[in-house]
Specification:
Layout: H1 2-14, H2 16-64, H3 72-82, H4 87-116, H5 123-149, H6 153-177, H7 183-209, H8 220-250, H9 253-269, H10 271-288, H11 292-320, H12 324-328, H13 335-342, H14 345-361, H15 365-390, H16 392-428
Length: 429
Amino acid sequence: MVPLMTTKLKQLFKSRMARNTLWLSGGQGLRLLIQAAFFTVIARSLGVNNYGSFVGVVALVGILYPFGALGSGNLLVKKVALDRGAFPTAWGGALITTACSGAVLITAVLLLSRLTLPAIIPMRLVLLVAVADILGLSLITIAAQAFQAFEQMKWTAAINVFLNASRLVGAVALVLVHHHPSALQWGYVYLGCSAVAATAAFCLVWMKLGAPDLVLHRSLSEYREGFYFSIGLSAQTIYNDIDKTMLVRLSTLDATGIYGAGYRLIDVSFAPVLALLYSAYPNFFRKGSAGIAASFSYAKPLLLRTIVYALFICVGILLCAGIVPYVLGAEYARTTEVLRWLSPLPVLKSIHYFLSDTLTGAGHQGLRSCLQTGVAIFNVLINLWLIPAYSWRGAAWSSIASDALLACAAGAAVYILSKRANRLVTSQL
């Protein structure tokens, strides 16, 4: 038995994707510990109302954030996965695109905030978060995707850990100076941490992978595909996070705070699945070049294993949600109920993420973006009905319905496209 296990372990570590997943999982594990400490410090020190204000602003900025790079990071992964020599121009094009579109989007966020956020939230907080995420986080994400494209996940993990570590250091320093800081004070620190992490990530890519070729050379088809990626990511942000912004507007900051805390904990529990998805992403393009059937065949075993993990997480959340007030404080007592309502999300997210990556890998990003946009519209409409009537419970119900709808839609799309491809092959024979 022992020799057999040793052989299996050796085979596991010979797999590049397994090694990359382990690197990312290890990085995610460290990142989770840092995030847990950071989240606890910020949630407790800001208090539920200030935390609700910050969550509402981050959710609003997150809707436009994907357009900051116009899908150039995803295109970089695709290009390098198929031709490593394309890196300098893809990297340089991503930097130029982010700089140009980011400035426009920051202005758009400031204008949009006056229509969607209550006047009690200062405009400066919106500006700080917008610069930190639309410019800073975009650059950090593209740097991580550069290493993802070369399947050097240890550096991807390092970038993600450093970002969260810098935020933890900033949060602790802020609390030491101001025991109960305001959301605006945290906004300044949030921007500073993002700037430090973005500079470090840029320098790391330059040293390890090479200098960018700062020539914007993208065809019309690449702009269209990049726009599809941006639409998909923005729609994903809407059906994941717009409920926080709508809670700020249609309910209370208190409700936003407890719901935002619960959703954040769900995101933390899903982090190992994201590590696997991130490791597998370049392979979806390689496998998908042979068609949707090949892409789904690659996804299926990964999906089945992930669902088992997600079911364990779902049960664990149901059983352990009661400890949250002991960690975050008594004012977050209702987060226990939030967590229990949201516990099915890891299972639903596992299903639709793998099926959606199956579509992307096979060249159907446009279809994926359409499905995500439809679900985002559904999420907004149902929230307009449920949040005024049921506050955070309505937001939780709409999240579950939206993720379930996307899982069904992505599954139906993969099934129909696979059947169509099989009929085409049969007719050619």
